[in-house]
Specification:
By secondary structure, this protein is mainly alpha-helical. The chain has 6 helices and 3 strands. Helix 5 packs across helix 6.
Length: 84
């Protein structure tokens, strides 16, 4: 799964923080729910626009390098170049 299809920065609703496409829920917000003890079932019931798939992608995006690269495409290019 290409995370870029589901996670993107949104300056209007999340101050440029990466969020799940078409939900206005930032990755940071979702992590906060889990840190607060919410279960996946509770999150999906409260926010029906989310699916299990895009929730998993959002959690995967919590990796600090990935989150930084979403907000900073130049960093993503540098990371990809070092892998080559």
């Amino acid at each position: 799964m290409d995370w870029r299809k589901l996670i993107h920065p949104e300056p209007k609703t999340s101050a440029g923080k990466p969020e799940v496409k078409e939900t206005q829920l930032s990755v940071e917000f979702l992590l906060g729910l889990f840190a607060g003890g919410w279960t996946e079932k509770q999150v999906l019931e409260k926010y029906p626009a989310l699916t299990s798939e895009n929730l998993r992608v959002a959690l995967a995006a919590a990796d600090s390098k990935l989150v930084s690269s979403i907000a900073n495409p130049e960093l993503l290019e540098m990371i990809e170049q070092t892998r080559e």
